[in-house]
Amino acid sequence: MIDPDTLPAEPLPRLLAVMAALRDPADGCPWDLEQTWATIAPYTIEEAYEVADAIARSAWNEVPGELGDLLLQVVYFAQMGREEERFDFGDIARIAAEKMILRHPHVFGTERIADEAAQNAAWEVQKATERRARGETRVLDGVAIALPALSRALKLQNRAARVGFDWPDEAGVMDKIVEEAGELAEVARDGDAGRIEDEAGDLLFAVVNLARRLGVDPEAALRRTNAKFERRFAAVEDELGARGRAPAQSDLPEMDAIWAEVKAREKSD
Questions:
Q1: Dist. CA 257–CA 261, nearest whole Å
Q2: What are the sequence ranges of the domains in the chain?
Q3: Quick check: 150 and 219 in contact, CB under 8 A?
Q4: How far apart are CA 202 and CA 196, in angstroms?
Q5: TM spans, by residue (predicted)?
Q6: Which of the 8 DSSP states describes residue 135?
Q7: Which pLDDT band, with edges at 50, 70 and 90, does 127 fall under?
């Protein structure tokens, strides 16, 4: 057993010491000792989304805890890296700091940046230089496979657009969406699951392209729509409950009528 009073008092050293104790081969936690790079990675993604969720809900009292959970993931990886003599938390922090210094010569050097657009352009040039240093020579190299599909589609399209592979205007993208919707409807009639999935993906990719052209983050837009759907369906459930029924005891016409009322109320507020 470890006496918590023997751990460092400063927050970050204390957290690092806690993780080292959890992974101690002799006295650590059995669950923590069994974890690997692969098993922890999904938790890291989950914790990042929980941070985003708390911020989206303006739940500021929850944000420190959620950020702490996310930081714990970094500390977890740092401890495993230390155990395998690959790297430690200091290496992670040092690399992050140096990367930010390198990417902000207008803050940590003599270069001057006129505005946000110029900064974004300079940022992309620097990142491209870093990718080449890692041996990533193709335009689409280095776009993380584990990203959510909508976010990855957006990044792939942005990369292609930077070298001129892009629609000249939004009208062309809208035409492409109509075309892809027609192709999806056609294969849906045939019932070929593989082709249906393929065409559905093409349609979603085209919609992401339109969102990008309009300056909309498709991942954020869909999260917002998900929240709106949850809110409105909950209102439908509440109304049905007031009528003494659950959704399974209703039918589509009734629920659709209530939905329209909820939607109208939201728009009038």
A1: 6
A2: 4-103, 220-268
A3: yes
A4: 10
A5: none
A6: T
A7: confident
For residue range 231-267, what is the model confidence (pLDDT) as tens digits?
999 999 999 999 999 999 999 999 999 999 999 999 8
Which two three-digit tokens encode residue 102?
A: 């390198």
Torsions phi, psi of 122, nearest 5? -65, -40
- Tell the CATH topology of 4-103: Helix Hairpins (1.10.287)
Closest alpha carbon to 222 in 87, 99, 52:
52
Q: What is the maximum span of the chain, computed from C-alpha positions, in angstroms?
A: 70
Q: List, in order, residues 6 or more apart from 14 with CB less than 8 Å away.
A: 7, 8
pTM over the 0.85 mark: no
Cα 227 to chain center, whole Å?
A: 16
* Residues 207 and 176: beta-carbon distance below 8 Å: no
Concatenating the DSSP letter of every residue in 229-267 gives HHHHHHHHHHHHHHTT--GGGS-HHHHHHHHHHHHHHHH
